[in-house]
């Protein structure tokens, strides 16, 4: 045969670490990489978005889980402080709105001053709670209030004395009843008239008394109104006195605070409003009403009246760029919420029960979240868009928004929002948001697209070695020696299914390192070596290969029929990949083709019983087109072919068996036997050219394992497309078998080369005069077809 199998050096590219200095013996001598390797495109996107302060430049980071998206972004943000341009950060506090208690006010304070201001207010209140009662409990206050009370008494007595004397002159007494009411009674000498004595008076005298009493009652009503005015005047004077006394105390204690914050207009305004409110609510401090005072102090710590507390929502302990990772993005955890408190069976709430969300804590910085988790939780996505559009953060009650009930709740003042949102998600979620949400592209204008793999060069291998060093150092593992580094890089290349690529799935590398570290420590080694990495890989495979062992058992006990030696007409060994969620392996499948007189159709049994997928059906149609171009250019092919995967009871999809199917059909047409010690994988186009397929390493290894079960022969091997040669990163035992000449791998570029290997004959080249040579596979098929056409 003219087609030579691949040499063993083409089947595995071992890392030589040529770019690494010869004296670099382990990761101990490597500078750890402080960024994720191979993600320059994504990093540039993040840098671009972070440098633009305008609305809408939020980031959607696309990539599979395990690529290190979050790690890369966090490392970048921690390394390059985006706040280097001096954007100020603030503490945010809620305080009472003394004019409208349902709408608490926001205080914006310089970063780091919120808790300090809160403590200063607490100290002020503790002083006032003690000082105010003392100010009203001294001789000077008692003397001034007593003077006012005496003045009131004198005026009251003076007013009543005039009326009493006038009543006496008219034989009428003015007295105060036990119920506190004034009473005018006619006198009989010095004693009040009884009913009997009054009845003995003449009508004229009775009328005289009634007129007198009526006149006196009118005057009495006027005097009572005057007394009420005097009492109100007294009350006002006492209030004024109280305010004067309290003002002296409050001003004395509050003055240092006003001085300390004289440059901050918001705090000055609040202190002024608080001073006014204290003077209007002195009874809270003087404890005149026990019930009112108890409610005013109702809190977890009964230190000070609730209305004067400062609720520090966000405190920036230092001028450091806020970076917040929200792992559970519920509505309340992102936007904050208002708690309720219970006092003596009564549920109440106020500004001191407002709690911050992650958006509050990230204000002025960055909030990182998982896109799918955000979309899964009710109302979160709409709330996030609303906040980003308005650039305001509102602590609203979710219950009020989603129910029809009119429960009483707070309406806190909005907080200005300046934040970058970074969502991490996969490509499918990104497409759905782009397609179904018109706001998405406006609010998330920057896409950070993370790579799955990177080119494998001497330079990139050095970068990868430094990346391995960073994982080792971060997790405080044993260091890897040079051979262990090379083995991990080889594993990465195998994960990428390409000799010239390295996988960027950092989670896989980190897991392998952890397990290798465990193996090394278990064997009391002081360093991770290549054999520890091999042990970890074997342990990984053993944990997840139950299905593979089960499938291989069916070849061992003969349940699955397969021949790995001899020759058969219309029968071929194709290769497929079986996948679970975390593992995939290869196994051979027998494909058979039978022919009968007919109209030239290829009857795909898998498709007709609905076990074949659309891609498999497309592959059968393509090979049918190739067959028609070879044998049916002048006349219709007089054979119908029935094609099937033997013992296939599940679905079949993919076109990687189309070359195998064509070989089986041509074998049936020409009655040429196909080698059973050779398996084939690869798709083809309408011109018969071999096209690359996936899972080539697993497919080759699967047939190699089955050959070991059925009995190994030096003639056994696998045919693959030439375009898959660079994907080969085979197991060491397969490479060793090829090196010893015990197994072959052929890389072909056309299906005719496969026929040549499988039949031992030339496929045949079409001659315009005589057709295909009679001793070729196509020539024998042409003769048979021509006989049927007669």
CATH architecture of the largest domain: 2-Layer Sandwich
Q: Residue-averaged pLDDT, rounded?
A: 84
Which topology of the largest domain does CATH recognise? Ribosomal Protein S5, domain 2
- Classified by CATH, the class of the largest domain is Alpha Beta
Count of structural domains: 4
> Which strand-content bin applies to the residues?
15-25%
Please tell me what the overall shape is: elongated
Return the structural class. Answer: alpha/beta
Give the strand line-up of the largest sheet. Answer: 23-24-22-21-26-29-30
Distance between the termini: 35 Å
Instruction: Determine the fraction of residues in helical runs and give it as a percent range.
Output: 40-55%
Family: Belongs to the peptidase S16 family.
GO biological process, one term: protein catabolic process
GO molecular function, one term: ATP-dependent peptidase activity
EC number: 3.4.21.53
What would a concise description of this structure say?
The chain folds into four domains: 1-35 and 453-546, Orthogonal Bundle (Helicase, Ruva Protein, domain 3), CATH 1.10.8; 39-89 and 316-450, Rossmann fold, CATH 3.40.50.300; 126-305; 560-788, Ribosomal Protein S5, domain 2 (2-Layer Sandwich), CATH 3.30.230.10.
Write a structural description.
- The structure is a single chain.
- The two termini are 35 Å apart.
- It contains 28 helices and 30 strands.
- The strands form ten sheets. Strands 23-24-22-21-26-29-30 form a seven-stranded mixed β-sheet, sandwiched between helices. It has a five-stranded parallel β-sheet with strand order 8-13-16-1-17.
- The protein is elongated, with a radius of gyration of 47 Å.
- 47% of the residues lie in helices and 16% in strands.
- β27 (683-684) and β28 (690-691) form a beta hairpin.
- The protein has 790 residues and is of the alpha/beta class.
- It folds into four domains: 1-35 and 453-546, Helicase, Ruva Protein, domain 3 (Orthogonal Bundle); 39-89 and 316-450, Rossmann fold; 126-305; 560-788, Ribosomal Protein S5, domain 2 (2-Layer Sandwich).
- InterPro entries: AAA_32, Lon-like_helical, Lon_proteolytic, Lon_Prtase, LonB_AAA-LID, P-loop_NTPase, Ribosomal_Su5_D2-typ_SF, Ribsml_uS5_D2-typ_fold_subgr.
- Keywords: ATP-binding, Coiled coil, Hydrolase, Nucleotide-binding, Protease, Serine protease.
- Pfam families: AAA_32 (PF13654), Lon_C (PF05362), LonB_AAA-LID (PF20436), LonC_helical (PF20437).
- One of its GO terms (molecular function) is ATP-dependent peptidase activity.
- Residues 566-761 form the Lon proteolytic domain.
């Amino acid at each position: 045969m003219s087609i030579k199998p691949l040499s063993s050096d083409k089947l595995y590219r071992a890392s030589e670490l040529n770019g690494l200095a010869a004296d670099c013996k382990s990761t101990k001598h490597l500078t750890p990489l402080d960024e994720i390797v191979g993600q320059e495109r994504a990093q540039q996107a993040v840098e671009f978005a972070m440098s633009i302060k305008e609305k809408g430049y939020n980031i959607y980071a696309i990539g599979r889980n395990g690529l290190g998206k979050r790690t890369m972004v966090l490392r970048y943000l921690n390394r390059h402080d985006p706040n280097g341009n001096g954007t100020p950060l603030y503490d945010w506090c809620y305080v009472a709105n003394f004019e409208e208690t349902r709408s608490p006010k926001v205080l914006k304070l310089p970063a780091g001053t919120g808790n300090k201001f809160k403590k200063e207010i607490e100290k002020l209140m503790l002083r006032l709670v003690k000082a105010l009662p003392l100010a009203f409990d001294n001789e000077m206050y008692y003397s001034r209030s007593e003077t006012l009370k005496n003045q009131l008494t004198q005026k009251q007595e003076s007013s009543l004395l005039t009326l009493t004397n006038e009543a006496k002159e008219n034989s009428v007494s003015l007295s105060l009843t036990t119920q506190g009411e004034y009473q005018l009674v006619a006198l009989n000498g010095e004693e009040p008239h009884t009913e009997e004595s009054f009845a003995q008076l003449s009508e004229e005298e009775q009328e005289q008394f009634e007129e007198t009493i009526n006149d006196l009652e009118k005057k009495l009503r006027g005097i009572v109104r005057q007394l009420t005015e005097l009492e109100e005047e007294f009350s006002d004077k006492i209030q004024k006195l109280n305010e004067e006394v309290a003002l002296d105390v409050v001003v004395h204690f509050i003055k240092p605070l006003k001085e300390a914050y004289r440059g901050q207009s918001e705090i000055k305004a609040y202190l002024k409003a608080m001073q006014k409110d204290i003077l209007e609510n002195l009874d809270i401090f003087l404890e005149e009403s026990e019930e009112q005072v108890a409610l005013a102090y109702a809190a977890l710590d009964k230190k000070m009246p609730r209305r004067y507390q400062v609720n520090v929502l966000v405190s920036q302990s230092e001028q450091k760029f806020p970076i917040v990772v929200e792992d559970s993005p519920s509505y309340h955890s992102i936007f904050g919420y208002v708690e309720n408190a219970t006092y003596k069976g009564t549920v109440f709430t106020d500004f001191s029960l407002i709690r911050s969300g992650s958006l509050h804590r990230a204000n002025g910085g960055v909030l990182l979240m998982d896109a799918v988790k955000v979309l899964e939780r009710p109302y979160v996505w709409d709330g996030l868009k609303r906040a980003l559009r308005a650039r305001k953060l509102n602590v609203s009650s979710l219950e009020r928004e989603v129910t029809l009930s009119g429960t009483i709740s707070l309406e806190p003042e909005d907080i200005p929002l300046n934040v970058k949102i970074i969502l991490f998600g996969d490509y499918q979620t990104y497409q759905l948001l782009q397609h179904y949400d018109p706001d998405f592209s406006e609010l998330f204008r920057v896409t950070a697209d993370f790579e799955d793999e990177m080119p494998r060069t001497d330079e990139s291998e050095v970068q990868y070695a430094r990346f391995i060093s960073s994982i080792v150092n971060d997790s405080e593992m044993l260091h890897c020696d040079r051979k262990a580094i090379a083995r991990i890089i080889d594993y990465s290349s195998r994960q990428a299914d390409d000799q010239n690529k390295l996988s960027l799935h950092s989670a896989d590398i980190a897991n392998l390192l952890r397990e290798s570290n465990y193996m090394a420590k278990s064997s009391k080694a002081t360093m991770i070596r290549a054999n520890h990495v091999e042990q970890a890989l074997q342990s990984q495979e053993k944990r997840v290969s139950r299905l593979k062992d089960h499938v291989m058992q069916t070849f061992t006990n003969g349940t699955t029929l397969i021949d790995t030696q001899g020759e058969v007409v219309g029968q071929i060994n194709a290769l497929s990949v079986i996948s679970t969620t975390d593992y995939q392996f290869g196994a051979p499948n027998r494909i058979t083709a039978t022919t009968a007189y007919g109209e030239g159709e290829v009857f795909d049994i898998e498709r007709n019983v609905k076990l074949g997928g659309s891609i498999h059906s497309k592959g059968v149609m393509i090979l049918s087109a190739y067959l028609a171009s070879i044998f049916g250019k002048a006349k219709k092919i007089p054979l119908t072919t029935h094609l099937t995967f033997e013992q296939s009871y599940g679905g079949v999809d993919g076109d990687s068996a189309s070359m195998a199917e064509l070989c089986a059909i041509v074998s049936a047409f020409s009655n040429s036997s196909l080698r059973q010690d050779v398996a084939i994988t690869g798709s083809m186009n309408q011109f018969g050219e071999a096209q690359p397929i996936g899972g080539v390493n697993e497919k080759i290894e699967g047939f190699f394992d089955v050959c070991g079960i059925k009995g190994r022969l030096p003639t056994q091997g696998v045919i693959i497309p030439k375009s898959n040669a660079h994907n080969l990163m085979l197991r060491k035992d397969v490479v060793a078998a090829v090196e010893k000449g015990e197994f072959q791998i052929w890389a072909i570029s056309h299906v005719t080369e496969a026929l040549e290997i499988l039949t031992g004959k030339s496929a045949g080249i079409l001659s315009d005069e005589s057709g295909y040579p009679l001793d070729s596979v196509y020539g024998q098929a042409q003769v048979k077809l021509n006989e049927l056409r007669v």
